[in-house]
Amino acid sequence: MKMKLCVILIVSTFLPVNSVFVYKFTELVGCSDSVDEPILLYSLDRNEIVFEDYKANNQVSRLPPFADPVHFENLYDYAISKRDNCIQTIENVTATIGNQTENKVPPDCSIYPKHDVVPGEKNNFICFVTNFYPPHIKLRWMRNGVFVTEGVYISQFSINSDGTFNIFSTLTTTPDKGDRFSCMVEHQALDSPHSITWDESMEPPRLTPSVTPTVVFAVGILGLATGIFFVIKGTCFR
Ligand SMILES: *[C@@H]1O[C@H](CO)[C@@H](O)[C@H](O)[C@H]1NC(C)=O
Ligand SMILES: *[C@@H]1O[C@H](CO)[C@@H](O)[C@H](O)[C@H]1NC(C)=O
User: Fold this and answer.
1) Do residue 129 and residue 89 come from a single domain?
2) Alpha helices, DSSP H only, in the chain?
3) 35 C-alpha vs ligand 1 centroid, how far in Å?
4) So what's the pLDDT on residue 62?
């Protein structure tokens, strides 16, 4: 399938007063003439703040629960105008220079559980897919070779400085002993769907108990030494 895609990036950087922190605020607008999935999202550094859900006519905050929520006024109307403008840009560019073949970059994929897997205990499996272009991609989950949709979450895109994209998906489920979880990735730069699988053999070896007390002891000694240093410093160098 041939797909033309237009991505417009408006990147601005600002420096807060009296601070050494520099944040990069990004507005990402994307559209395609072959896939009806426009994108409008805002991010601060590489953390997504909010995206527009075009189908639900709703802006979706992506901040963690402890952060103050942000709300953009009239974002839907703005998003629609950006989408139309983006589609018009594709038409204009195509009319001028014809259909261009795009550089396609296949994704790097990894899969891992959020917590150590204990059969019968709820967990999240994460499928992390990075550095691909164009952004259109399909992710699906399988449990023991059977597709599952329940408990699946798919993130929005994040963009890298080289113009490639990242995305991740999570599957929230309670694994049983011997379960295999696979993430299947379909992308134009891959000849066929690519599937990566997690099973018990991928669990990292656990720390043997004999190691832990030594580490705790060493940290304790270091803490004691630091304490003594500050006591001496406080007493002698006033
Ligand atoms: C596309 O081309 C039309 C006609 O030349 C022009 O009016 C319009 O502004 C262009 N739109 C974009 C988004 O470049
Ligand atoms: C570009 O490709 C589309 C189909 O994807 C075709 O309809 C159109 O005529 C092509 N335009 C040019 C200028 O080659």
Assistant:
1) no
2) 75-97, 211-236
3) 21
4) 85
Q: Is residue 214 part of a domain?
A: no
User: What residues in the chain have per-residue pLDDT under 70?
Assistant: 1-19, 205-238
- Quick one: how far is CA 19 from the chain centroid? 28
Boundaries of domain holding 172 = 108-202
Residue 34's pLDDT is what? 76
Question: Does a structural domain hold residue 167?
Answer: yes
Amino acid identity, position 86: C
In this structure, the residues whose C-beta lies within 6 A of any atom of ligand 1 are 85, 88-89, 92
Looking at residue 76, its pLDDT comes to 93
**To test the ligand 2 pocket, which listed residue (1, 32, 94, 101) has its Cβ within 8 A of the most ligand atoms?**
94
pTM check: above 0.90: no
Separation of alpha carbons 10 and 22, rounded Å: 17
CA distance 132 to 163: 9
Q: 189-193 long-range contacts, Cβ below 8 Å, gap at least 24?
A: 189/104, 189/105, 189/106, 189/107, 189/132, 189/133, 190/106, 190/107
Q: How far apart are the first and last CA of the chain?
A: 75
Rounded Cα gap, residues 224 and 214, in angstroms: 15
Residue 220: half-sphere exposure toward Cβ, Cα within 13 Å: 6
- Per-residue confidence (pLDDT) for residue 10, from 0 to 100: 43
